[in-house]
Queue: 2 jobs
Job 1
Amino acid sequence: MKRFAKQALFYSVLAGLWIVLAKLKIWPPYVFPPPQGVLESLWAGFADHSFWIAIAVSMKRMLLGYSLSVVLGMVLGLGVASNKFLEETMGGLLVSLQSLPSICWLPLAVLWFGLTEKAILFVVVMGSLLSVTIAMETGRQQMPKIYGMAGRNLGARGFKLFWYVLLPASLPYILSGLKQGWAFAWRSLISGEMIFVSLGLGQLLMMGRDLNDMSQVIAVMILIVAIGYLVDGLVFKTVERRLQHKWGLAPAT
Amino acid sequence: MTPNPAHQSVTTGDRRSRVRSAARWKPGDAALTISLRHLNKPAIPKVSLEGISLSYKTNGGSRLLALDNINLKVKAGEFLCIVGPSGCGKSTLLHLIAGLQPASSGRVLIDDKQVEGTGTDRILIFQELGLFPWLTVGQNVEFGMKMKGISKAERNEKTDYYLRLVHLGQFKDSYTHQLSGGMRQRVALARALASEPDVLLMDEPFAALDAQTRDLLHDELERIWSETGRTIIFVTHNVREAVRLGGRVALFTFRPGRVKREFLIDLPRPRQLEDVTVAKTAREILNDLREEINKSLEEQYSHEAVR
């Protein structure tokens, strides 16, 4: 509760500062909108359903793209981790490719797929695939070997060994990578949507810019942050807590 | 030991059952089951190791011979203990029998049929157990059956049976990290037994336990062995433990591992670690073992001198 009080205080001071700055009218309101203007934009956006639609479209792309990169990344990461040749050749490429912002793939994606959903999906996958792959690779290596041996010993082989033993055993080691992959995918998606016109939060943000409507821009920014925070807090934190409880890594709550 | 009230109650439960099983014990029981099995399959040993050798490359590039021409036969229902100094390859031998690792040469036969790779007819209990922390105790125990594709109802029934056998009935839904060391050990035993293997391979399973828990588990293992009639190959560096449990003790030499001598232990059961007869037999074996330990120490020191 104490922590909550501190946070409440912090955010009210921040909001107060914003109100005062806006009241001083140093900049015109279309450059520096007051908080109530942003609130109005938020209200209006939800009222005319444009925000709901944008969120739905963006989340659909996220889920598709992210699931794709999780599946692909796990297969790739496992391959790299269990094959010496792949590790020595592809391992370095993967790490170096990770320094490339995924939005750099957009020109290629547009050439290959046109201005379609596929191009956006491609950018999202490229944004998170490498994180997942590298996480899976290191997770597979960090995972104690005993689990794989115990699994084989008890008759697990092939896909069963992967699904029932290797995957759950490496989960604590790959969870942070999965989380990072989600964050990268989210950023790639928004930048992708900002660059080419399509429904979605990124486009809504650019529309605000085109209309010189800074209230809308800030409203959408708040939405993007809020969704990212919610997914982290609701999905990943829950998974993390349950894992820690099961594995006995933290005191049970 | 942690003052865990749940564990206390189990401990007392164990003691009661120990008294019970000791009272019920008839010396001829185990021998009877063995001889009955022998009527069905006269001369075929349960496990045969034929000329097993293992060598591998060291970091320096030279080849190291870890196991040298191991020949051992284990009868069905026999309790064989393997003792030797650390570094004699006795744990590695269990991994070879379990099929987790290929031998450089030689064959492993079960019922006169050569085996390759892992198989649920031979289940290894690892020194570090390898229980799955993401599964509950019950799910750990049923894991092998699940891999075999046994129906859920049968799995449930057998899981309950084997958990009761190791006195962990009320811990089915706990996670393994919530249990004490001795209880985890029993989960591993139940998990191995639930796959109903012909051969149980145990790799220094009680080395990390405190003395009281270990004594208790000795009693339980002896009881379970006599009740289930499994063939057990038990690796330990503790000679008294080997004499306490085994019907036969095979002494391994230090690197390369060879069978130096075999001892038939025909002391009456149930035995106790403190029995004079056990101590006496152990001393005899220990005299032979000490030579090997000295060899291992010498090698260690000579390496250090070179450095």
Job 2
Amino acid sequence: MFRSFGKLFFILAAAAVFAMPAARADDQVKIGLLFDVTGPVANFVPPMLDAAKLVVDQVNAQGGILGGKQLATVVADTQGAPQTAVDAANKLVNAEHVPIVVGPLLSGTVLASAQSVIIPAGVVQISPSATTPALTTLKDHDWVFRVVPSDAYQGPVLAKLLIDKGLKRVALTYANNDYAVGIAGTFRAAYKKLGGVLSADLQHDEKKTTFRTELATLAKNKPEALVLIAFAGASGVTIVKEALEGGFFTQFVGTDSLRDKVLIEQVGEQNLKGIFFTSPSSPPGTPSMDAFEKAYSAAFQTTKDKLFIQQVYDATFLAALAIQKAGSLDRKKIRAALRQISGPGGEIVGPGDWKKAVDLIAAGRKIDYQGASGDCNFDKSGDVAGVIGHFVIENGSFKQVGIVTP
Amino acid sequence: MDTGTILYLLSLATMTGLYAILTLGLNLQWGFAGMFNAGIAGFFAIGAYATSILTTPPAEDRFGGFDLPIPLGLAAGVLLSAVLGYAIARICLRLKSDYLAIATIGIAEILRLTLRNEAWMTGGNRGIAGIPRPFEDMEQPWGELCFLLLVAGIVVVLYVAIERAWHSPWGRVMRAIRENEEAAEAAGKDVVAFRAHVFSLGAAVMGLAGGLMAHYLKFIGPDATEPILTTFLAWVMLIAGGSGNNRGAVLGAGVIWVIWSGTELLTQRLPPDWQTRSSYIRVFLIGLLLQIVLQRFSHGLLPEKPPRPPESDSG
């Protein structure tokens, strides 16, 4: 009995695996959603899948894709781990033959699936949420994109802001964690390129209790300000306090990690005159954002407390636009098309404007998709510029006084 | 068949091969010597990280990137796992079954968490990207095919070597220790030394599996060493295939990985309204199929067959 059961089991399994791909429908265009549906970020994923579904519904309600075909998605689950991400990507790209992939969400699953499967196969991949700087330098032959700024993006913005403010000789110190090391690296390069001089450049151990020796080194040669990339709760506040007490520095510049209430509470606003910060921010009420907000809320109640739904929506919409622009499922044409529909330059298209975009493409016009999460203009490594705000302290709290672009 | 389908089948076979190596390593420890190692993830991680650090190009944000040849990296991973396995064995082997299991879980978690948190060495949560893969410069699907042949070759070599060991006097001592430690000791066998050897050997094979996996994925991060995809899966594969039987270990790896991966091809065919739920249905399916395999084949698909002693030995 065991033998016959075993045979049956294998025949069924084999039949299932081999026979199913034959059932592909020709009147459908499928976008691959490579998402971390189960695993460490499982509870964030359902609203994101809703965001992708919103794109599908809008496209199909407004005439479909590639001359009336139905848009559809096919989900593959990375399970949040590299091994299974590679396996899932293989299924999407090789068994399902999707022309373009949206996802995954985690930096690890993106790096594994991209390097091992997606780049070798030559398929465009757009991640909605991977922020690792390793994606910028990946040798991806322009196949890998993302619609969320890299962790390291803030560095060049910070450099630009300093130069704009006339601070051309500063001291830099940063904590020994992923975040700070990443930003410090890109800040250093950009600042020097813009003509700035670092009078001192020092990494510090954020677990130390005092930084007087470091501060003495940093204050040599009288720099104009101290650029401090550290978490307020770890080494940030201590360094600011000791710098003021010892008279080492009076002008400070920080990033979002220092932009913490604790700083004002423990140091006092009166001691922090002239301090300013850069921090990731969102564009203040763009039409694209409002359009998405309205459409998503109408279909799925609310956008509140749902992470990265804007980015998932944008990535899926861009994928659909790229296919439409390419005019076929040819993966190389889609790669070229993605850069032609995302801008900059061309007629502005926003979330939900599918019909308008299709007509513009048919008329041979250039279009520039402005997404719910930002302008979605890809640079040469496939990254987007984030929206970085310029913050100051005013009346006991932080206030955004402008948006900085590098 | 089109290239895409071939590529998917190649990846299925490659993953099966990689897990078969891991399962063979576990079979050495559990199937042969009856040593309950619940810390497979640790040895897997050591092998994976060692070769990743040695073979990647120089990196700024972490230790190393020595750009060494891949075989050297793999050898270092194997050696490190073996040494570590031996050290752990010397410390823990006087512990009996369930206590050994707890000790190995603990040690594996210490290793894993160290690798996760010592970012200066391993890249921390960011992991290590850009790990070279052998034959990656070749056209698709030839590069993939060559890598599969490499993995398959290693599986065959390991299989033959372990089979020979199983039939040798050394293998008989192992089974004797497994079945009755006191009796083996009374017969004058140095039980602790034998167990340390086999534990170290099993650890080395697990390190090799980890190293090859890192080269295959071209990326290694803390999520790749989670126990669910290493320790747990290797155990399920061995038990489903038949512990103590090397062919069973390889078959178990194949069956379980095909279930793990293939179920998604089924759930992807669900109607669109079910799509957001398909991944959860799939996890349920995996559990169900594992239940069926384990229920129907309680001694594994290929149960252990102790070799008959040859005539000359029986007299």
